[in-house]
Specification:
mainly alpha
Length: 249
């Protein structure tokens, strides 16, 4: 199976960092990156939250050695309490090098759209991952990627937490999307991904239209002028201004 045509990797010879958990998605990322002629460094994050996490790390190190690529294992320890998924994601982002590539697929994109929709997200939340160069597999289907790994004769690690109904993403993956497929009588993942790309184009155009507004700081704003702005323009400007506040504000 040739999936490279659906991947968005940089040119051959480019040095890249890859996040590899040992699961089929990240193993597929590694295999495809090597097929694309990239110079890869593997990074594995051990959260130490599962009895088998040490075995996962050893597995990834062995796979990296097999393909002759360097491997760095990052040990992180999560504080108890709070949202486990968010805390784990924050720790991974903290230790991984900037620009590290991940194995997120089109199915992950669709799941994220639905999760963000349930939070009441705007255009940014409904067009996640699109245009993100760290997500080179976002046009690849998960099932195709897993089959590609099976064909390579690598036996991926299985993280049992991916089966747990305790986590909202798992329920979206195993319950909501199959039900949507049944209601729509079709595969909704490509539809959600296409919608995300359409919204990304709208969002990019709005960014261009509002580029001049970004020069206006909170301290310089005239409330009389702002009151004449359309609500969408005002909300967009205010969101950007608040998101870029420095700690001293």
């Amino acid at each position: 199976m040739n999936l490279l045509g659906d991947c968005d990797f940089p040119g051959p010879g480019t040095s890249v960092d890859l996040a590899v958990s040992g699961g089929p998605d990240s193993l597929g990322l590694l295999l495809l990156a090597l097929d694309a002629g990239l110079t890869a460094t593997v990074h594995h994050v051990d959260h130490h939250t599962r009895p088998a996490s040490g075995d996962d790390a050893c597995f990834v190190v062995a796979v990296a050695e097999r393909f002759g690529v360097p491997c760095v294992v990052h040990d992180v320890f999560l504080e108890p309490g709070g949202n486990f998924e968010a805390l784990a994601r924050a720790q991974r982002r903290r230790v991984l090098p900037p620009g590290t590539l991940t194995g997120h697929t089109m199915d992950d994109l669709a799941e994220t759209v639905l999760l963000n929709m349930m939070r009441g997200a705007g255009l940014e939340g409904l067009s996640p991952m699109v245009g993100d160069t760290t997500k080179p597999l976002q046009r690849v289907r998960r099932r195709d990627l897993h089959f590609f790994v099976v064909e390579s004769e690598l036996e991926a690690r299985h993280d049992e937490t991916n089966d747990s109904a305790l986590y909202r993403r798992n329920r979206v993956r195993h319950e909501l999307i199959p039900m949507m497929n049944d209601v729509a009588q079709r595969d909704v993942v490509p539809i959600l991904a296409r919608q995300a790309r359409v919204l990304f184009e709208d969002r990019s155009w709005l960014d261009e239209l509002s580029a001049g507004d970004l020069a206006l700081g909170l301290d310089d704003a005239d409330c009389r002028e702002l009151s004449r702005w359309p609500e969408a323009r005002l909300t967009r400007w205010l969101r950007v201004r608040l998101s870029t506040l420095t700690p001293e504000h």
